[in-house]
Design a protein that fits this description.
Layout lengths: L1 H16 L8 H18 L5 H11 L5 H20 L14 H4 L3 H17 L3 H19 L10 H10 L7 H21 L14 H4 L16 H13 L7 H21 L5 H9 L13 H18 L19 H16 L4 H20 L10 H10 L5 H20 L27 H13 L3 H16 L3 H6 L5 E2 L4 E5 L6 E5 L2 H14 L26 H12 L12 H13 L4 H8 L15 H4 L7 H4 L1
Helix pairs in contact: 1-2, 2-4, 3-4, 6-7, 7-9, 11-12, 12-14, 15-16, 16-18, 19-20, 20-22, 20-23, 20-24, 24-25
Length: 633
């Protein structure tokens, strides 16, 4: 030991003498090593760093603070040489920095220096100092649990760290710092090939509180079973491009994989159909899970089962066997009628939610008929319709009224097919009298200020807000359709725009007023970010990276609010961007346009939809008042 000590000391001093060495105070280092060696000889003690630090504690009482600091740094440099073969170590500020007193395994201690170099060269150098305390606490905990190598870290290690260190941090900021430190550490260990990628999210968002609930009573023995699947999962997500999956959908599926892989790691199970079934059974304990049959559970089940097909090479379609509809169990005569009714509603341009309600209402009605022995349309009487409607229970009167209206539509369809009498529809009573509120529109002052804002708009956001609001105010286009507009939808030569309405699925071509066209053109040329390749031709995109299309219709409402707020106006509760469409329709009516022209300009599926705007034309409404004779007599 003494010979090794002397050789090590000689090497350290020689390295300090090199011209490129930044180490100073060679004489103080030599004095420290010599004095310590004499202490070892006098007391017949073999050399160790623990012995060196014990000796330093004794010397504290005999030498000055400055000399003690110099001795400590000399011993620190000696230990660094014994571990790493060099003396490129920072100044030692406490005895906790020594490996022999760190409480870490040698692999973890070496990793601290490796991390410092990694952050200095590949990341922000300040990250290491920001995360170093929390990282070292993790290394100490892992060592105390018998884990001495980074590749032996498991999800259980991270959960234990959450329970023992993160929860005791004392402040949310310190806890968040520890979570960020572990996320960064797991990312680095994944790059090294030590841990699976999913480990990065074990502590994120409180996941460590959820994961224990996904532990099975009996676990397997597989070591890092998700690692072979990571690359395959990315290949699978790329394969979804063949079916035009959106990036946002793929991001959701990627999150599903993360939870599935964490489940495999937690229970040390290999991927198999049986494992997928076990995971799906645990889904209620995952975030946002209320019951196993909800849409999130169904989506996650679909994601992993499709992945299983991909691994087997049998993913020929992205369609899996869906749930059977209740209408599929109806007798053939009623199912044929219901399918025909739904098709007619589709041709009318009804949205999917409306079609679902129509199918549900029809299914409930025909199931009631079947239960009461009715097997032919001509056997449906007014009393039967009344009896069904009275027993059809709903949570609110509005809901019952909505289903009642769908039943009337079904009976009208059947009457049109000569299956029932035209008067049968009157057997469906109304839960409450129909009512209609007067539509809210922008005031003349508001409209005037919008035009004033358009004249002075100059910044990218101002130009975008102006273009959006002008499309709604001057053309009556819905917010959802505005966000879907692409550059190629505009025919600049003929001054028109063509698109398919999202709500009605109806194709429409509209003339573009000059002021609207100029606003859109100015935004495209002067406001839209140049690095917008990810926008894929959409006109209205984010102005911060990533430059992707705006997808939330509140963007249009926000544009209207910002313009009006410039002049002290505020939208009342419940009012939104749709007011621009209502204002457009009302102004067309006041200008003497026919109702069917207004309906066509708005892209309505039915002309009656535009009748709601009649009461806004006050001048013409005054021309047709009702007499009070019948009321006052």
């Amino acid at each position: 030991m003494q010979i090794n000590y002397l050789d090590a000391v000689s090497s350290v001093l020689n390295m300090m003498k090199q011209p490129d060495s930044a180490c100073k105070n060679i004489d103080m280092h030599r004095t420290c090593y010599t004095t310590f060696f004499k202490y070892l000889m006098d007391n017949d003690i073999p050399f160790s760093m623990d012995a060196a630090l014990d000796w330093l504690e004794i010397k504290k009482l005999e030498i000055s603070y400055e000399a003690c600091s110099q001795y400590r740094n000399a011993l620190f440099r000696l230990e660094h040489y014994l571990l790493f073969g060099d003396i490129e170590s920072p100044f030692c500020r406490s005895e906790d920095s020594f490996f022999c007193r760190s409480g870490m395994s040698e692999s973890f201690f070496r990793l601290t220096y490796e991390l410092e170099k990694y952050y200095a060269s590949n990341q922000n150098p300040s990250y290491y100092h920001t995360y170093s305390v929390a990282t070292k606490e993790f290394f100490k905990l892992a060592t105390s649990l018998g884990i001495t190598e980074p590749e032996a870290v498991t999800i259980d290690t991270l959960i234990e760290y959450w329970n023992t260190y993160c929860k005791s941090c004392g402040s949310p900021d310190r806890c968040q710092n520890a979570v960020c430190a572990m996320t960064a550490l797991m990312k680095y260990l994944h790059l090294r090939g030590d841990v699976p990628e999913c480990y990065q999210l074990v502590l994120f968002g409180g996941n460590a509180e959820i994961l224990p609930g996904m532990r099975l009573p009996k676990t397997g023995v597989a070591f890092h079973p998700s690692v072979p699947l990571e690359h395959k999962a990315e290949e699978y997500l790329d394969a979804l491009n063949d079916w035009k999956y959106m990036e946002s959908s793929k991001a959701v599926y990627r999150n599903d994989f993360t939870w599935y892989f964490m489940f495999l790691e937690l229970n040390r199970l290999e991927h198999s159909p049986e494992t997928v079934t076990l995971w799906i059974d645990m889904l209620p304990d995952c975030p946002d899970q209320a019951k196993a049959g909800n849409s999130i559970s169904a989506r996650r089940s679909h994601t992993i089962r499709m992945f299983g097909k991909y691994l087997q090479g049998t993913m020929e379609s992205n369609i899996t066997a869906g749930q059977k509809r209740a209408s599929d169990q109806l007798p053939s005569w009623s199912k044929t009628i219901l399918d025909g009714f739904i098709e007619s509603r589709k041709r009318d341009g009804m949205a999917n939610n409306t079609l679902t309600m129509c199918r549900s209402a029809g299914c409930r009605f025909f199931k009631y008929l079947e239960d009461n022995g009715i097997d032919h349309p001509m056997s449906i009487t007014p009393d039967v319709v009344k009896a069904f409607h009275n027993q059809d229970v709903h949570s609110t009167p509005e809901s019952k009224n909505a289903y009642g209206s769908k039943l009337r539509q079904l009976l009208r369809y059947m009457a049109g097919q000569d299956l029932v009498l035209p008067t049968l529809v009157f057997a469906v009573s109304a839960g409450c009298a129909p009512h209609r509120s007067i539509v809210d529109v922008l005031s003349d002052d508001m409209v005037k200020k919008i035009y004033e804002y358009r004249e002075k708009a100059s910044t990218p956001i101002e130009l975008r807000d102006t273009a959006m609001v002008m499309l709604g105010l001057r053309m009556g286009i819905r917010g959802a359709d505005i966000l879907k507009l692409q550059v190629n939808d505009f025919d600049w030569k003929n001054k028109t725009v063509s698109f398919i309405q999202q709500k009605t699925r109806k194709a429409i071509t509209l003339p573009v007023p000059t002021d609207v066209g100029n606003s859109v053109y100015k935004y495209i040329m002067d406001g839209r970010p140049e690095s917008a390749a990810a926008g894929n031709g959409y006109i209205f995109i984010r102005h911060q990276a990533p430059y992707i299309p705006l997808k939330v219709t509140t963007a249009c409402r926000g544009a209207l609010k910002r313009i009006l707020a410039e002049y002290g106006f505020e939208l009342s509760a419940g009012q939104g961007f749709h007011m621009t469409r209502k204002t457009f329709a009302t102004r067309m009516l006041r200008a003497g346009n026919r109702l069917d022209d207004i309906s066509n300009a708005l892209g309505h599926a039915r002309q009656e939809t535009a009748e709601v705007y009649l009461e806004r034309d006050e001048d013409k409404m005054r021309l047709c008042p009702l007499e009070f004779g019948g009321v006052l007599s």
